[in-house]
Structures are given as structure tokens and as C-alpha cells.
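task queued by scheduler; priority normal; single chain, no ligands, no partner chains; default sampling; output format set to C-alpha cells
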Amino acid sequence: MQPNAGRSAWLDAAYKILLEAGVEAIKVMTLARRLNVSRTSFYWHFKDRVDLLDALVIRWQEKNTGHLIAQANLFAGSLCEAMLNVMDCWHNANLFDSQLDQAIRYWARTDPQLQRHLDIADEQRFEAIKSMFMRHGLGAAQAEVRAMTVLYTQVGYISMAIKEPSVVRLSRIAQYCEVFTGQQPSQVEMQRFYSRHT
């Protein structure tokens, strides 16, 4: 048995259990066994189990919501380029963790406090994408509907656990971009997108 594990190791182990079995399966003793460390070493890094769960929520907020907002705010010379920046999130696990997003949504169904955090995060994502559309000339009403279309499509994609080869999904990006924006991306814009993901 190892004498200790770092804070990130405990958090990573809790993350894996959350994805595998849900929040109820996250127990200090279970984590200690998985990490092959003493249970007492957990308390060097976390006040209690709630503190660990709060850290998981913060990880989700920073990674998923934080990166999505950052992508929506990137400089773009056209609406299609801006939309493709946001769509980077769906194709780069370093920007957006779809499995974690799904796990958080399941967890929130039984945790009213987390549901409030989720509602705030969804509103922040919506506002960022709506603002992106408006910066590129769309009126408020159309920007709202298009932002909802982007978000609802992706949430549905995650919740339905759609499985398709990456080459197939990438082949549809130009069509998705046109659906979301009402504009057809240029060949150069698509080449830039593909260069980031192939």
C-alpha cells in the first residue's frame, strides 16, 4: 500500500467512478482501495466527501462551461468561423468532456443544489453563444433560437450516447455549421477546422 496520493489522484479516481457508476458509488474507502492508499490520507486533501464532490463540480464548470464560453468569445472573421470555434468543443476532449457533462446531468436529477449549478451553467453557455451570433449581425430573436438549436442538439447528442466514427461525424461538420448559422462555411474555414482535428 502506498502511503499517500496527491489531491489530483483522488479527484481523478472520483471522476472515473462518477462516469462508471454514478455519484452514489463515490466513497472514500472505495477510492482508497482503487488508489491503494490509506483512507486517512484522503483527509490531507479534502475536508470530507462533500468537499471532494464540490471539487468534481468545479472541474466540470471550469472545463466544460469555461472552455465553451472561451471558444464562443474567440476572434472570428465570420459567423461560420465563430461557429466552428464553438464546434471545436465537440471534437476535442481537452476542451469539453461529454461523458462528464452527461454524468453531471444525471447526478443533478437527484441533487437540487447541483441542478441550480447546472441551470446557471446552461444559461451561461446559452448567453455566450447568443452573444456570438449577435456580434456577427443576427438580431436578438434569431440569435436566441440559433443558440438554443446549438445547445439542444449537443445535449441531445450526449444524452442519446450517439456513437459514430469520427470520420463520419467530421464529414457532417459543414452541414451542421450551415444548419446552425444559416450560412455555408468556406473551403478555407473548413480546412482550418479539419487541420485542428485530423
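post-processing summary
- The chain is about 70% helix and 0% strand.
- The radius of gyration is 19 Å.
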